[in-house]
Specification:
This protein is an all-beta fold. It has 2 domains: about 40 residues, no CATH class; about 140 residues, Jelly Rolls, CATH 2.60.120.1340. The protein is about 0% helix and about 55% strand. It contains no helices and 15 strands. Strands 5, 6, 8, 11, 13, 14 and 15 form a 7-stranded mixed β-sheet that branches. The radius of gyration is 21 Å and the shape is elongated.
């Protein structure tokens, strides 16, 4: 059924009827509901699976001279973290230090810069046992908004290097990035509460 506000699609099938081994849909009945205007949610078979990517940023050049003093690495643009929703944050990049076998300490902060409320702390990522050699940084965690109100803010990924002088490395061909995805109801996830 289709009208000015709702369109519903039902797909029926009992399996493949050809020798083609690729199956796109193999289900007796699958229901999808995407409610953009009310809650920004996507439900599949009555399960809220989230609305997907909400914000992202990438970095294409090095940040140099990183020491034990916390610095901004990148800021994800402002978005609304809706009350009762869960968000998957993924951070990826490369880092190295002039001192081997040390670590970087990363934080995710509310707002811009290094002064905002810490949403996620103590993300310690070691660097390789060889000085000035890039190590991958690959962090994923869940933020949940159970504050009782929507929160509209940017979030900033910051970092510091425990020893030596560090570089957070990125280039046009090997970009660092941060993404935020809506993954469903906060009640369905264990995550870091935000306010």
């Amino acid at each position: 059924s289709v009208n000015t506000r709702v369109s519903g699609i039902e797909m029926f099938g009992g399996g493949p009827t050809t020798t083609d081994t690729s199956i796109l849909i193999d289900a007796d009945r699958v229901n999808f509901n995407h409610d953009v205007e009310v809650s920004d949610q996507l439900t599949v078979n009555s399960i809220d699976v989230g609305a997907g990517l909400r914000a992202c940023i990438d970095l294409q050049s090095n940040i140099t001279g990183i020491t034990a003093t916390e610095v901004t690495l990148m800021t994800v643009p402002s978005m609304t973290y809706k009350n009762g929703r869960a968000y998957r944050v993924h951070l990826w990049g490369l880092a190295n230090s002039t001192t081997a076998s040390t670590y970087f300490l990363y934080r995710l902060r509310k707002g811009t810069g290094t002064g905002g409320t810490i949403y996620k702390d103590q993300m310690r990522v070691p660097v390789l046992s060889t000085a000035s050699t890039n190590s991958a940084v690959d962090l994923t965690f869940i933020l949940v908004n159970t504050s009782g109100a929507d929160i509209t803010t940017a979030v900033t990924w910051t970092g510091s290097c425990a020893a030596g002088t560090g570089i957070f490395a990125a280039s046009a061909g090997n970009r660092a990035h941060a993404t935020v995805e809506d993954v469903g109801l906060s009640a369905d996830w264990v995550g870091q509460p935000i306010s």
